[in-house]
Structure formats: C-alpha cells, structure tokens
Amino acid sequence: MMRMNNIIKAIMGSDNFIITSHYSPDGDNLGSSIGLYYGLKKLNKKVIFVLDDTLPKNLSFLYEDIKIYKSEEIDIDDYILISLDCGDKDRLCCSEEIKKNCKMLINIDHHKSNDNYGDLNYVDFEASSTCEIIYDLLNNIDKKIIDKKIGNCLYTGLITDTGNFMYSNTNSSSFIMASNLLKLEIDKENIIKNLYQNNPLNYVKILGDTLNTLEVIEEKIATIDLTCEMFKKNAISFNDADGFVNYARDIKGVEVGILFKQKESNLVKVSLRSKSYVDVSEIARKFGGGGHIKASGCTIKNSLENVKEMVIKEVLEHV
Amino acid sequence: MMRMNNIIKAIMGSDNFIITSHYSPDGDNLGSSIGLYYGLKKLNKKVIFVLDDTLPKNLSFLYEDIKIYKSEEIDIDDYILISLDCGDKDRLCCSEEIKKNCKMLINIDHHKSNDNYGDLNYVDFEASSTCEIIYDLLNNIDKKIIDKKIGNCLYTGLITDTGNFMYSNTNSSSFIMASNLLKLEIDKENIIKNLYQNNPLNYVKILGDTLNTLEVIEEKIATIDLTCEMFKKNAISFNDADGFVNYARDIKGVEVGILFKQKESNLVKVSLRSKSYVDVSEIARKFGGGGHIKASGCTIKNSLENVKEMVIKEVLEHV
Fold first, then answer.
1. Residue-wise pLDDT tens digits, B24-70
2. What's the CATH number where A185 sits?
C-alpha cells in the first residue's frame, strides 16, 4: 500500500504525464494505458499516450476517441513517464530520449519477470492484470473517478488477460472488480463482440486448414501445422493467425499441444502448451526460446519436417 | 423474497426429498441439482437425485461421488419433489408416478418460458443460472452451508450458463457469487479442464472438416455444413458435434451464422445465430422451429441442398 501511496502522491503532485506500454500491444496493455489516460484527464492533468507500434484493429473501439502519439511527434519536458504492463525497460514502446528525459519513471505492472526498473515501482504479480492495478489505483485516488468510459478500458484488459476468467490468475478480487464495473453499465456486449465475434473470414478458413493437419502422438502429444502455403492460399499474414495451439492441447488425454508455424521455408515458430504436469518452458529453452511453465515458444531455423522431428522427440522425453 | 422464504420453510419442515431436472442434462442442471443435493444432506435431510437420462461424460467430475437414481429404482413416499432448471413439467426427467405422488412440487428455475407449474415456485429469469438461485437459497438457509464441494457444483453451472461470463445474462451478482466461491478454494482449474480441455480427438477433426465448408453470402450470412458423410468419416455421433455454429456468426461483418447439420439424407437440423439485429427465432418459426431472438433452430425434412436454398433465401429477407 505504501508503494501505491507514493505513486499517488507523485501523480497528484505533478501536471505533465507521458504514458506508454510494451511493443505488440494487447488488451491489458491498451486497456490499462487508456483507462489511466482518461483517469488522469479527469484529474485535469496533461497527459499524452505514446506507442511506437501499430495497433490491433479488434481493439480500435478502445482508442478511436483519443490520439495516440509516436515518439517523434512530441516535444515536452518536466514530465513523469508512466510505464504500464511492461516487464522490461528495453521493451518500452517509446524513444530512448523520452525514457532518458523524464523527471521520474513510474513502473506499474503484473509480470513476474519485472525487475523494478522504475524510480517508483508497483509490481504485483498476483494481480490478474495491469488493469486490475489501475482499477485499485484510481479507486484509491477517488472512489468516483472510474466512469463507464474508463470501465470499458479496464474490463477489456481484465477479460483478455484472464481469458474470460478462465486462467489461473483470476482472483476473487478480479470478480469484485468485474461486478463493480457492470454496475457502471459498461458496454460489455460491445466489448465481447469486438474481441470475439469479429474474426476475419480468412482466419476461420486457415483455422480449418490447420485443424486438418492434426496428429496425435502416443495419445499425449497433439500437433498442428501452419505452413507458408496455407498463409498464401488464405491471404492471411503470419501474425494474424494466432491462438490456434489451444485446439491441440484441449484434446482429451493430451498433455502437450504443439503448433508448428512456418514463417519461411527454413524458419519455424513453435508454440507449446501443456495441460497439467509438463514444464514446456524447459523444452522451449533447449531450442533457444522460453516462456511460462504451461505456455512457451521458440523459433528454430530448419525445415518444417526437421523441426517437427526434433521438437516431438524432445517432448516425448517429458510426457 | 417471500417466495424464497416459503420454499425455505417447506424445506426446513420436511425430511424426504427427490430432486430432478430436465432431459439432456447440462452444467447448470447438474450443478444446481447436485449442489442442492449436498446442501440438503448437510441439513440432515434424506435426499435422492433422480434423472432418467444418460449423463454427459465431461461433467462426470460433478457426479462421480453420488448415486444418481432412475425412477424405477426408488420407492418412497411422503416426499417433496424439487424441480431444478426445468421450464416445463413435461420435460422433467422422472416418471409420471414420481411427479404424481409427491406431497409438494417445488419449481426453481431461471427460464423465461417457465409457467410456474409447481405448488411453490421460484422462477427468476433475471438470474444468470439456476445455480445462482441455489446459491442464494442455500445462503439464506445458512451463510456457512456452502462449502468447497457445493461451490464446485454451483460454479460449474454459473460458467456454463453464462458462457464464461460472456453472455448478456451475466449480472453484477454473478460476479459476486464467483468471487465468494473462489474464496472457498473451489477446484476452478479442474472444472475448466474438464469442461473445455477435454475434447474428443474426432470432435476437433470434424470441426476442421466443417470449417472447410464455410461460405459467406452477401457478406452478411455465413454458413457451415456438417454432412452424414463427415459424421461417418470421423466416427462421431450427431449429438457429439455441438457448438460449431458460432464460428460462422463470429466472422467480421456477418450478422447471421447458420449451421446445416444433416441427420439423415433427407433430414437437416438448422441452427441460426445472429449478432445484432436479426430475430432468428422468427425465421426458425417459419420452418416449424423456434428459440431465442439471437439463437434459434429448426429441423427440416428435405435434402441438404434444398434446405440450404430455402433457409438462405429466407435469411436474406432479414439481413
């Protein structure tokens, strides 16, 4: 609580803020950033949100009303830089100049790997999401500050980072937060529609092609492939075919699900998911990757065929 | 509240109970039945759960510790019959004799179509689930009665009937209930694993085949097919390939998703889902079916080809 109070004091005692987050922005990242942005605006602060990356279209409902700046567009001084949902200062999605020139860096995050790189740090890896921390922070500043607009942002981060309350990071407090946000009459239906009912046609088509490659090995391992050919056939880009690996893991009896995603003829991204007892981060590390115990990945320079053989051989040692 | 108090009085003043629910048991149905079963046991009541149907295997974690009776196995009198999660007395999944011989019928449900067929009725169609009503009922009897075991049952019904808190029936109170159940250290991970990470291999294969049939008509309608041939090829039964229609609806720009599921060469089950403005129950009714505004269905005796033509023509009038 003292850590949070120090951050509140710093916020209340200053006028100019730049908010930023990590590369490849996701729901929690944009939700917490834009939620805090609106909160600071309501406190009559000057605040700029900077993000030197492209933004996911399915989250455009969050940012259509605000200007998101690129680093080169801004020229202010005497500002506090607030970093949200980013475990690593090097991954902060703004220029080195902005990082260097701030009068203070406040680091608010829920990633276990965060090394407290800020001048003030609030890193709670038991929080479901950075949005849950921002919810507490704003409530601690003023119980009435969170309105429907801020609520929409925070709810988006909460449900994307908890997988609709399915992941194990879902806390009792996450549900209290959700309950209170619903009372603000947030646009829950619209959020759900934007997040989950808005798939590009070719996304569904390439999912079909991917599932047709399904193979089960010794009943414990399930693999699916996404080849360069499939990307070409379905006119969909590498980054837009995401989240398929769960279909492999979620098969009865399967412990490890693997997606082999071919980026180039000799470059394959491997996603590994386990259900109960296999530490897939250990497997990913053997191939130069990493991640979490039940969700990891690595990228291997070799043919799809060879990569599959190597990885499956390794996974077989663990199931 | 008076209605609930009358039910509580009736429960506290009696010793013998039979609990039953509707045919084709689902998560809310079994969750509320078994949750109340354990609750009544803790109140030292004699209680029997009767269900004259086969039970879904993915919910076996709920019922593996209790005996579920068939109507013909029981022979008691002076009992109260409690009907849970069933909108229609004719769909109650026990014998006519059991219905006829009870000294009182208590009807607890959340379906809008429920016609209050009980001697005592608690029908709240604003409740997310019957489990949410049982949660309130048990808490009103004794704040300490709900333990981890009962919590597992009630949480299962809550998340299956709200689609992991995504459907519009999710209330602020649903989240409070979820928050309180998490405090009881329910087996959330295990519930999620059983419900969503336990698909038969052939289920995933036939999903792939189904997605390969995807067609989009005038950018507003998406159709997918499940043919007799696919069922045969993938060795999966008609009832076990469920829930695919959402893949059609959840495409960007699509308003109506349709699944054509061929039961016999001349018999097709049609599932219709809309996203925003089309009342698909109206369309289903034209073909002798019915359902909800955004989720309806009908079964048509004709070839797959003809059924598709007829239904698409009708849907085109509405988009």
1. 899 999 999 999 999 999 999 999 999 999 898 889 999 999 999 99
2. 3.90.1640.10
Confidence of residue A131 (pLDDT cuts 50, 70, 90): very high
CA separation for the pair A55, A25 (Å, rounded): 7
Domain end, chosen from A135, A169, A196, is at A196
Range of the domain at A307: 202-316
Sign of CA dihedral A285, A288, A292, A296: negative
Is the Cβ pair B176, A173 closer than 8 Å? no
pLDDT tens profile B278-313: 999 999 999 998 878 888 999 999 999 999 999 999
pLDDT in tens, B98-144: 999 999 999 999 988 899 999 999 999 999 999 999 999 999 999 99
d(C-alpha A164, C-alpha A167), whole Å: 8
Asked if B141 and B44 touch (Cβ cutoff 8 Å), the reply is no
Q: β-strand A215-217 against A120-123: which pairing, if any?
A: unpaired
pLDDT of residue A10: 98
Interface of B with A (CB under 8 A): 159, 164-166, 168, 170-176, 178-180, 182-183, 188-189, 192-193, 196-201, 204-205, 207-212, 214, 216, 222, 247, 249-252, 275-276
B172/A182 touch (CB, cutoff 8 Å), yes or no: yes
Structure tokens at A33: 């950033």
Which residues in chain B have Cβ-Cβ distances shorter than 8 Å to A257? none
Contact check, Cβ <8 Å, A178/B175 = yes
Both B147 and B130 in a single domain? yes
Residues A213 and A81 in one domain: no
Same domain, A181 and A305: no
